[in-house]
Amino acid sequence: MAWNHIKPFFHLFGKGNNMKLSFDHLVWFKHKPENAIQPLSENGIHVVQGGRHESWGTYNTLSFFDLSYIEFLGIEQVSIAEQHEENQLITQIVKQLFKENREGPAKIAIRTDQINELAITLREESFTVHGPLPGQRVTASGEVIKWNLLFIEDQPNELSLPFFIQWEKSDEERMAAFKEQGILGRHASENSKFESVGFVVRNLEDTISTWGKLFNLTPSEEFREEGLQARCRKLELPGTNLLFCTPLGNGPAGKVLHERGETPFLVNLAETNQNSFIEMLNGYWRFQ
Fold first, then answer.
1. Full DSSP string of 127-196
2. What is the pLDDT of residues 66-84, one digit of tens each?
């Protein structure tokens, strides 16, 4: 992706602009999201029933680490899901999960409080943009949770860009609701944190430069991840960090890149009172 495509983001999120950006969630495609509950529970991670996206034909289960979370997303009614063209997450899950039968981590969402301004600027800069699109989830108790989504159209065979989400309620209101519902601090280690999500990429320098400019963040120095057999660099984003890795051999990073291409592939959890690295649910998990 060329510099002139990144420039509008730099102006939007640079110094002097108060647009708030935070990591929101990692979307993990799963044929039956409820089947993520038991294996994660066995590893000390609490997953709750989410709800149904009736107009999208999808449903989910969720694992919360304060406002950062992992969403296990599945298709409930493919006839409804196939009707969507603008919602790039739904078109991706239909292609990847339903047509290609590929489960696993797929895309990240970034939380903003100025989604309309963001959409206007991106269109002015000739991006192909979809949204803002309204979304809602109906919980088992009947509560309706609402938000808006904004997508930048991805380029073929490149790492899927994040999409943007703006919730109807503020961060403070959502945190208060989570505490009231008792869905926080339910992991085996109450202080468990979603430290970072890892992406495997072909060209570490180009990708970290693109994403660094995207959020106006300075990447870390390069370091080796022996367990992944990769060289990596990190972007520190509020909520959860982003880790980008290029394989050095045929280890976990190399295996994923060969089989699935550029994609999210790793969840790093901190303060879990564990020290393990496992493959689970078609992705990798590090517990520290």
1. --EEEEEEEEEEETT--EEEEEEEEEPPPTTSPPPPEEEEESS-HHHHHHHHHHHT-SS-SSSTT-EEEE
2. 999 999 999 999 999 999 9
Q: How many degrees, rounded to 5, is the angle at CA 268 between CA 262 and CA 271?
A: 175
Q: Are residues 93 and 236 in the same domain?
A: no
For the chain, the domain total comes to 2
Burial per residue of 219-238, b for 16 or more beta-carbon CB atoms within 10 angstroms, e otherwise: bbeeeebeebbbbbbbbebe
The 10 Å CB-count burial string (b at 16+, else e) for 22-51 is: ebbbbbbbbeebeebbeebeebebbbbebb
Specify whether 81 is located in the same domain as 219.
no
Last residue of a domain, one of 181, 203, 229: 181
Residue with tokens 């496992």: 278
In contact, 27 and 68? CB cutoff 8 Å: no
- Strand (E) or helix (H) holding 266: strand 263-270
pLDDT of residue 13: 54
Closest listed residue to residue 31, CA positions, set 108, 109, 93: 93
- Non-local (6+) Cβ contacts of 270 within 8 A are 192, 193, 195, 288
pLDDT in tens, 203-221: 999 999 989 987 889 999 9
- According to DSSP, residue 84 is labeled -
Final residue belonging to a domain, choices 120, 151, 181: 181
Helices (H) and strands (E) in the chain, counts: 8, 15
**Distance in angstroms (rounded) separating the CA atoms of residues 144 and 29:** 22
Q: What pairs with residue 68 in β-bridges?
A: 65
Same domain, 82 and 167: yes
The verdict on residue 187 lying in a domain is: no
Give the sign of the dihedral formed by CA 214, CA 220, CA 226, CA 229. Answer: positive
